[in-house]
Amino acid sequence: WRFVSTLAYIGMGWIVVIAIKPLMEALPAAGFIWLVVGGGLYTLGTIFYLWRIMPFHHAVWHLFVLAGTICHFFCVLFYVMMK
To answer: Is the Cβ–Cβ distance between 74 and 41 less than 8 Å?
Structure first.
């Protein structure tokens, strides 16, 4: 169940690719890169979330979530709010 629910969350996170064209038109390239890197960090973090035998796997996952959140924060701050 843990694997299936994780795949569902990853799918919900990446569903934004449906609107990729208007998103690329609205954001400068650097803002788009911040957005994609943040999503990539969230996705990579799920490896550690699922890797239960690794010590502190849950804490490492949270570090990836924090890093992805920071990337999305910078995207919004610099390329949405400052626009």
So the answer is: no
